Amino acid sequence: MSIDPEIAPQPKRLVWQEATVVAITIATPRVKIFRLRPVAWQGFTAGQHVDLRLTAPDGYQAERSYSIGSAPDRSGEIDLVIDLIDDGEVSPFFHAVVEIGDTIEMRGPIGGHFIWRAEDGGPLLLVAGGSGLVPLMSMLRYRSDAAPDIPAALVLSARREGEMIWREELLSRDRDEAGFHLFATVTRDVPATPGIHHGRVNAGLIASALARLPAPPKTIFICGATPFVDAAADLALAAGIPFERIRTERYGG
């Protein structure tokens, strides 16, 4: 595996380190984006994630994994998207307590299967449910910077249009990037934006995305909650995508 050592080397050993919160963005009513600057950061590959750890005064610790949404670069900073889970141990703390300047325990990057590099080629078909968009957004941003000639299509499902993370950026990329096509759908309301569909991801939406690619996808990445991933993978197989080209990543809930 050939990886630019200045962009995304794999660490020899995962160790906990401090990361400073340098920016917080409200993405949707229940999603915040936290930009972190780790003390010692050696880069990552699009699609990877990190672990965060919180330690209570009594010593109790809670850990959660979060995908990186920013593109691999040399800034030394990463964007993590944290969806508020009301009964969660970690996300409520981030949403209610964490402020710019705070330090958080972090380790990573982690993951070697659900990743994409420019030399891996394309075309790419990306399928995301809700916050499953995050690692795929890292891939899309990296593709735009490093390999804009590689065709890519994104099928995205959200409950409501207002809950679509990076909605404006995705619509802009769909409009301005010749090699990228967005197929977005919402399941719980009628979208106000022309071109955004209503309903669940189905065979027709997958077929429309495949039709916009100049050749069958070399890889299809699917990310979301387990039921969504299972359904999307079945749709991909039914559309004729070979099993070995499908990569999936799931989150609980």
Would you summarize the structure shown here?
The chain has 253 residues and is α/β, with parallel strands linked by helices. Helices cover 21% and strands 33% of the residues. The N terminus is likely disordered.
Main sheet properties: 6 strands, antiparallel
Assign the structural class, choosing from mainly alpha, mainly beta, alpha/beta, alpha+beta, or little secondary structure. alpha/beta
Helix fraction?
10-25%
Number of helices: 5
- What would the principal axes of the Cα set say about the shape? globular
| CATH fold node name of the largest domain | Rossmann fold
Number of DSSP-assigned strands = 12
Cα separation of the termini: 33 Å
What is the residue-averaged pLDDT? Answer: 92
CATH architecture of the largest domain: 3-Layer(aba) Sandwich
CATH superfamily of the largest domain: Nucleotide-binding domain of ferredoxin-NADP reductase (FNR) module
Cα-atom radius of gyration: 18 Å
Show unreliable segments. Answer: 1-11
How much of the residues is beta strand, in percent? 25-35%
As for the number of domains, it is: 2
The strands making up the biggest β-sheet line up spatially as 4-3-6-1-2-5
